[in-house]
């Protein structure tokens, strides 16, 4: 019992170190972010930075060691933040500080607020217990993500020799588990699985603050957040199985949410560098991250070209930030693959089978409306898009529609190139479709939040103050 408690303390310290690292980066880039924003963004950025550094160590042939894994990235990020603080103080030393407007007093929590918070609390009590009390059991967790993490920990490096477990997949999640094993000093599947509810908590926290920045009051923001989490079993299931899909969904929300705020001109300063880090997370997290990031950039670029806002050329040039982020997450892994002689698997693109596109379409439509998978999330998204009316063509809401519609089409096209036998095809679609749709759900939640503004109750008295 005491040993388990000590291991749990070590795990908490490991997660705290990641969050501190990412939080310092957020405070450097966006010092106006509140504490919830810093932690929600900081956890994911800390995981991204640490695992990319572990990739670099393996590329250099340096074995994993916890002080070495932490020291350089934490020192670098901390130095950037400290230098920024010193520079700001010196630059304002000779100037009188600007008057700080009083913040409006937040409204008291309503019964609806407490209801939504209670539902979310109950969800995470279940998710943490379900994750921690069971070992890894789902197939991909055992055979891919968890297996690689154990090998990396045992070998002290990201060594992919001697086995085949989709070795060309990006390795943010296995390396994150390896990092936690380093903190624990042992392989412990029960405890490291607690990181997966944390991905979900960071996602929902980020969704809540993005909805607030879009102008929804606290009650509606909490309601939309709970609506995403509690509709169907797909989101809940991925809170406690050791798959990479919850992490990918988190990075999809961050990249898409910050890009959407930027398109609306509601974004805080330095939003595009933050969007770049989230695009890096997309491409380093899972194979599907690259097309997700690419479709996001295409949707943003087309939205700008369609709406023709002032300073169009400068705004289009600003999309270079997420492009650089995409390359930051993609190229180091591709270079490592080339150095190790790894080839991209043929289980994603082998040929084009147009009949499979039409065979997948009924199952795709069934999944969008099947209550067990996503509840009424997707019908509610359709209602929200209808409520947009003509605004969908005259405002940045076009970005949300383009991203969702484009990825619906991309999913169907992906099934058209899947090299499965006719007998296995329908099972393959049913086994993967819920995960592919899960990645899009937080952007659907943003659209639902915008739809709520069309039926009243948009900007509350404290919306701008969070």
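Sequence proposed for the structure above (466 residues):
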């Amino acid at each position: 019992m005491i040993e388990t408690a000590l291991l749990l303390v070590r795990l908490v310290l490991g997660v705290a170190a990641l969050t501190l690292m990412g939080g310092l980066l957020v405070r450097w880039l966006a010092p106006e972010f509140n504490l919830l924003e810093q932690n929600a963004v900081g956890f994911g950025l800390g995981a991204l930075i640490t695992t990319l550094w572990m990739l670099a160590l393996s590329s250099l042939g340096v074995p994993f060691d916890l002080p070495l894994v932490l020291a350089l990235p934490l020192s670098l990020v901390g130095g950037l933040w400290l230098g920024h603080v010193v520079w700001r103080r010196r630059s304002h030393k000779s100037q009188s500080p600007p008057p700080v407007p009083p913040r409006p007093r937040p409204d008291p929590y309503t019964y609806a607020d407490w209801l939504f918070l209670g539902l979310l609390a109950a969800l995470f009590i279940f998710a943490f217990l379900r994750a921690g009390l069971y070992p890894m059991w789902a197939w991909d967790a055992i055979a891919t993500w968890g297996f690689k993490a154990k090998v990396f920990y045992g070998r002290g490096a990201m060594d992919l020799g001697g086995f085949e477990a989709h070795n060309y997949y990006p390795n943010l999640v296995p390396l994150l588990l390896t990092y936690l094993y380093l903190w624990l000093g042992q392989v412990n599947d029960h405890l490291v699985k607690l990181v997966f509810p944390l991905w979900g908590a960071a996602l929902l926290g980020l969704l809540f603050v993005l909805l607030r920045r879009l102008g929804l009051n606290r009650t509606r923001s909490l309601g939309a957040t709970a609506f995403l989490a509690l509709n169907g079993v797909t989101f809940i299931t991925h809170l406690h199985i050791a798959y990479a899909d919850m992490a990918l969904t988190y990075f999809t929300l961050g990249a898409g949410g910050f890009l959407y705020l930027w398109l609306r001109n509601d974004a805080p300063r330095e939003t595009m560098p933050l969007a770049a880090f989230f695009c890096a997370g997309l491409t380093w997290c899972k194979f599907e991250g690259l097309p997700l990031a690419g479709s996001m950039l295409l949707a943003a670029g087309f939205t700008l070209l369609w709406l023709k806002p002032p300073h169009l050329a400068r705004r289009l040039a600003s999309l270079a930030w997420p492009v650089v982020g995409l390359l930051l997450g993609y190229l180091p892994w591709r270079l490592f693959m080339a150095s190790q002689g790894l080839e991209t698997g043929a289980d994603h693109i082998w040929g084009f089978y147009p009949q499979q596109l039409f065979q997948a379409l009924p199952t795709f439509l069934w999944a969008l409306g099947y209550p067990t998978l996503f509840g009424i999330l997707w019908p509610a998204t359709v209602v929200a898009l209808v409520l947009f009316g003509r605004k969908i063509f005259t405002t940045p809401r076009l970005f949300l529609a383009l991203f969702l519609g484009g990825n619906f089409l991309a999913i169907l096209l992906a099934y058209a190139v899947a090299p499965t036998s006719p007998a296995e095809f329908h099972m393959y679609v049913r086994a993967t479709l819920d995960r592919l749709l899960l990645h899009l759900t937080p952007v659907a939640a943003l659209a639902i939040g915008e739809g709520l503004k069309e039926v009243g109750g948009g900007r509350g008295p404290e919306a701008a103050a969070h």
